[in-house]
Amino acid sequence: MKNTFGSSVCVTVFGESHGRAIGAVIDGLCPGITVDIEKINGALAKRRPSSNIDTSRREKDEFEILSGVFNGKTTGTPICIVIPNGDTKSADYEKTRFLARPSHADYTSFCKYHGYEDYRGGGHFSGRITAAIVAAGAIISSALDNIGVKIGTHILKCASVSDREFCNVDGDLEILKGKTFPVLSDCEKAMEDEIIKAKSDLDSVGGILQTAITGVPAGVGEPWFDSVESILSHALFSVGGIKGIEFGKGFALSGMRGSQANDAFCMKDGKVTTVTNNNGGILGGITNGMPIIFNCAVKPTPSIAKEQDTVDFSANENAKINIQGRHDPAIIRRACPVVESVTAIAICDMIAERYGTDVFLNGDKI
Amino acid sequence: MKNTFGSSVCVTVFGESHGRAIGAVIDGLCPGITVDIEKINGALAKRRPSSNIDTSRREKDEFEILSGVFNGKTTGTPICIVIPNGDTKSADYEKTRFLARPSHADYTSFCKYHGYEDYRGGGHFSGRITAAIVAAGAIISSALDNIGVKIGTHILKCASVSDREFCNVDGDLEILKGKTFPVLSDCEKAMEDEIIKAKSDLDSVGGILQTAITGVPAGVGEPWFDSVESILSHALFSVGGIKGIEFGKGFALSGMRGSQANDAFCMKDGKVTTVTNNNGGILGGITNGMPIIFNCAVKPTPSIAKEQDTVDFSANENAKINIQGRHDPAIIRRACPVVESVTAIAICDMIAERYGTDVFLNGDKI
Amino acid sequence: MKNTFGSSVCVTVFGESHGRAIGAVIDGLCPGITVDIEKINGALAKRRPSSNIDTSRREKDEFEILSGVFNGKTTGTPICIVIPNGDTKSADYEKTRFLARPSHADYTSFCKYHGYEDYRGGGHFSGRITAAIVAAGAIISSALDNIGVKIGTHILKCASVSDREFCNVDGDLEILKGKTFPVLSDCEKAMEDEIIKAKSDLDSVGGILQTAITGVPAGVGEPWFDSVESILSHALFSVGGIKGIEFGKGFALSGMRGSQANDAFCMKDGKVTTVTNNNGGILGGITNGMPIIFNCAVKPTPSIAKEQDTVDFSANENAKINIQGRHDPAIIRRACPVVESVTAIAICDMIAERYGTDVFLNGDKI
Amino acid sequence: MKNTFGSSVCVTVFGESHGRAIGAVIDGLCPGITVDIEKINGALAKRRPSSNIDTSRREKDEFEILSGVFNGKTTGTPICIVIPNGDTKSADYEKTRFLARPSHADYTSFCKYHGYEDYRGGGHFSGRITAAIVAAGAIISSALDNIGVKIGTHILKCASVSDREFCNVDGDLEILKGKTFPVLSDCEKAMEDEIIKAKSDLDSVGGILQTAITGVPAGVGEPWFDSVESILSHALFSVGGIKGIEFGKGFALSGMRGSQANDAFCMKDGKVTTVTNNNGGILGGITNGMPIIFNCAVKPTPSIAKEQDTVDFSANENAKINIQGRHDPAIIRRACPVVESVTAIAICDMIAERYGTDVFLNGDKI
């Protein structure tokens, strides 16, 4: 399936920004996992626009679980979650039907779907779909909790303002818990200032997200084609706006010498560990038991209020576009729970592939 | 399958560095594609170690095609290519059986395969396997030729020396043709000097590869989970040593404002194009008809001659390792045909998914 | 995915008999296919219990399409159809929670899902799920219409009463159109009598369904593992109660000699055809352009009113069961639209694999 | 992949009847499984033509394992087995290049591969490929041995002569062990007489094979689309000549009443079992712990010495064909190890899906 991720534990997304509803189907998740409605609501709240640095579209995200949950626990059969769309202003999009918004998918989806696509609000390409991914990720994260896997994402960089990198990962994940503007150092205000400044300039900003995963045992992943980097990047690059991914020291490694880049091994508390973690917890595509660390580059929101040059792809002629709609001057904050959810989905699948579906129920097996 | 890439056109790799042979099975490639033995040999020659900046292991790479080719053309049934291993010195590896070479897969493969892995020369994790990928890529590239898709990779950076970026992509791809040290500007000597210097320091260097693909029509790729970025990165991150991938301006985009980052559309020769190509030819995960551009960060070769700290993972105790074996002080040059081949495999699959398998035979369909 | 069928055009089902809703996601179907609400309603009506030979559970099957359809046509993105459950009497199942209904999935689903399964009314194993399959099949059949593929199923045998076999397939498919009790000869009354007799004996009957597909071009299918027989049987054997499938003359072929069984070729109206069609339109796993013909053996409905021996799998002791609930003395009639839908799903996928997704939009390509 | 079967443990086949070699790649099989060369040779010997009731083509089947085995055990990485072709008489096929042998794949492969197919000896469609499947099945069966799963196939019917059905399955599997003409009762001579009689009439015969699998725990399989019947039939229908499959009582069930067909449950030695096994060990698509039983209908060998009507599909005109080549008057005996191997491959995959790949190494987990 095209809109599905995973082999053992799979998530399929459906829906359009201005259609009746969006949603997801989770299949292959083991039975007996507690489905915590508050946790799902909490994850959706983190993704929801809430302040003046976000879009003014306000969705309640009142989801409904149609299947796969019985007496508060997963049954092991497909879970379908539906989130109805409410606050849609489709008229905004009618007048610009054939004007390609720069750096958006309007033109490419027209080429792919021959004009039958639901173009309103980005349709199936809309960031709105990520609400379904966040809901699915929240359910799946309860399975990961059962075996002690933890995931956290912070804003490493927003415009020109930087947060510090992960250092003590376990402690840092605790710091991030529950934060709606997830940073490790005292940089929230500076980042928000940059976003507000861009907004007042009718412009937008991007940033870099850094994610850590702990608790994944050594030996997960495959040597060729299904390396941990392959599976994670496959999942993450489907999130609109992500244009780069690096694991461990990533691009910085390319400028190091082997003697600097190599992670020496050492015994620690009777366990094989590495002194540094430049490889981000992955060697030869397989986890080595160290925290998995990666960075995602997020481009600035394409929708800006400034007038832009474009084409009318129906008339095949040059045109100007003034994007109306309602948009975020930065999606970097709202992208955090999305990246966390996509990561949860991908890691859950890899662990299920390695140890069998029921590992999350019988967490003591690993 | 774990060691398989692709949905419509698939490539499976098998083999170990010091086993009887390595090889690949290509399945789903359309019938009637000319299999050009010289082209395969040429691609293998580009990958082969040849000078003092490469490993001293010398393999002839005399491949044999066991199936799927008849009268010089593909039949449409699986093509099995086998490349026997010759120049192996397994004894080098016996004494370090349980010493984890830093930044190598020795420890992770031990965790995954419980000690049953063929540890000699990296076994199935060895870069040796990429010879099979290059051979497969060379066959597949003939299918891409039929529909006018071209792929080229150059060394954008080696240690601290930079090549210029792609600018006139069609012309630049011509420049790269046939080069065994593929760079666009006059930087080969400086790069080699850096490599030789690292070697004499018993060390190694990394670098960045830049790849361009032209001729892919707009409308290829999928919105969620199977974006062009997802599929390409999935394939590329299985190449050992690649630790970062960015599309278009990638990480640099994260520091731009929307008004700088957005690619304005314009009509050119009656065709929709973009003025800039910061998004690397991909919008919303779908090709927009512009050249697809991406960079891969390659870490320095992990095998260095310097003594390193490590562990004996059989005895679970600290140890020192002095890597003997035969290794490259830089794999960046030899990685070019590998990245090109992996890219060919992934793009061929995406095009077959979009237009049906026979599109390469009837190139006029697109 | 486990609950998904297909590679290019995929259908995922979700839901439990007594849960909030059942439904399906169709992914990969090409854009521009007309979604005919009346056609979906018509197919659901054929599957719906309606008379005294069916269960007394009465569902309205008022479906809702949540995504993937815009202005009455498919968009090319995932279509989610939801059918809420209404007429559920869950209390019927509480008292027999741990009594394994003979020939039902109660015990096997308990083993698979460790007791977390929704056991009410068969849960996810219920024939109720087939309503979602029928709705999906109805949408997909419009794509098949576009390229002239037709599918029809009739009751070849019910208990001891036989219908005639397909002879003039095109004409026979016309005869079946719109019939809610699909037979080719005058045998409806005799079949219904058998069913009513079984019901009055507190028992049930089975039968054989025969299906024909016309309009599939020669050359569809794969030699090994994805033969047309493989793909069709894979899809069909997921329908509860089907325990045998034969293509063409099937089991009867095993008693023939080669000279009787072989289908001689001959030219007819300038086209290669076969004189007989003992192979059911498939040679070497690939279509030969003749009608595809197969029979499905349907076992008698497991739910019967007679008392039966069983076990309590919670207490691990022998027990008696008296099935209350509401059941069909024969599902053979209602199975017809289900088999037709599953067939449509599988054939659509195979054709899309062969010719690319858009073939249904541009029907003239084949 | 098209020529691949399996999700967790996968087998890919390649090769053509008169090409350089045929072979298989097994991927996903767990490390540490003993690779027993004698066992593989034994399985190949059972499949090999040996007497006057078989083809006169004599292949030595001297296979070579190129990868994935180290120190006599599987490594967990892909195993490539190659069997060179030797005794080929390609000239036999040149003169009939465009004459469609009735009930063979000549015409359908021409339609699929546009004339680029290797037509000699049936090419990739040849029964010759089953040697690779048998070799792969033999390796996989050692994994199944580790967890106590046993598989056996006997000739239930050959032409008009019947063997008895399985009754005491464990004992019956012992009887079949090592038999090259696998029957349970004293009917070998009568079956061979029928075959010889057909041969002397320039004709061929078919038959029915019955297979039993023991030792599979209850709870394997999936409710929708990946039922045990679905997976097994998918695999089995790729074997040329199989045109019907029934599970348990199969087609006979369709004529029974529910009260006859239902398998009453009962406790036996503290274990849930069924009194009868009409459902062949599968309920709702999931194993119930009873032996899995199924029958395959094998059509008579299409190649017969009698002259037959056909067409020249190059000239599009009627023609006569006199098949020369070398053929079996019955493949039913040689089909037994092929069906056993395909069954082993499919069951191994389903068990790995359920319990994780390593279950075969740590057999005590189930």
Task: Characterise the protein shown here.
The structure is a homotetramer of 366-residue chains. By secondary structure, chain A is of the alpha+beta class. Chain A has one domain: Chorismate synthase AroC (Chorismate synthase, AroC fold, 4-Layer Sandwich). In chain A, 27% of the residues lie in helices and 22% in strands. Chain A contains 9 helices and 18 strands. Chain A has helices at 37-47, 91-94, 106-113, 130-146, 169-176, 188-200, 228-236, 258-261, 332-355, and strands spanning 4-5, 10-15, 21-27, 64-65, 69-70, 73-74, 79-84, 150-158, 161-162, 207-214, 242-247, 265-268, 271-274, 282-283, 286-287, 292-298, 308-312, 317-321. In chain A, the strands form 6 sheets. The first copy, chain A, has a 5-stranded antiparallel beta sheet, with helices on one face. In chain A, strands 9-8-10-16-11 form a 5-stranded antiparallel beta sheet. In chain A, strand 14 and strand 15 (286-287) form a beta hairpin. In chain A, helix 1 (37-47) packs across helix 4 (130-146), helix 1 crosses helix 9 and helix 4 packs across helix 9. The longest helix of chain A has 24 residues, at 332-355. Chain A is globular and about 65 Å long. The two termini of chain A are 30 Å apart. At the A-B interface, strand 1, helix 3, helix 7, strand 11 and helix 8 of A face strand 1, helix 3, helix 7, strand 11 and helix 8 of B. Strand 11 (242-247) of chain A pairs antiparallel with strand 11 (242-247) of chain B.
